[in-house]
Amino acid sequence: MPPEHQEYLQWNAERFLRWGKQIGPNTAAVVKLFLSAYKVEQQGYKSCMALLKSADKYSSARLEAACKKALAFTPAPSLKSIQSILKSGQDKLPDEEDTPVTTKASQYSFTRGAGYYRRDK
């Protein structure tokens, strides 16, 4: 077997899961999803490799944040969605659940709130 083909023999699910766990729990969860998305586990190796290699281009912290954000949107994120989160910088934005919701009082005194529409008698 040619030497460039032999390096693919070292790829297995345990190696990708270990690599993903080193980055973070959300990345490991996405790697598990990629490995279980296909009938044959080896078909998910390329997606796992592309995902984990994006930590070299960006950073491990940004990849973990992007995986967390993607998992918040959908239970089965795609590689493309995670890469678009990284490219657009959405992983740097604060999570919506972390930001407090502030309600401003209306400048108009005649605006009715939820209490007005209750039908409690």
Helix percentage range? 40-55%
Q: What gross morphology would you assign?
A: elongated
Total helices: the number is 6
* Chain-averaged pLDDT: 83
End-to-end separation in angstroms reads 82 Å
List the helices and strands and how they pair.
Layout: H1 3-6, H2 13-23, H3 25-36, H4 45-57, H5 60-73, H6 79-88
Helix pairs in contact: 2-3, 2-4, 3-4, 3-5, 4-5, 5-6
Can you give me a brief rundown of this structure?
The protein is mainly alpha-helical. The protein has helices at residues 3-6, 13-23, 25-36, 45-57, 60-73, 79-88. 53% of the residues lie in helices and 0% in strands.
Fold and architecture overview:
Helix 5 crosses helix 6. 23% of the residues are buried. 53% of the residues lie in helices and 0% in strands. The longest helix has 14 residues. The termini are far apart. The model has no long low-confidence stretch (mean pLDDT 83).
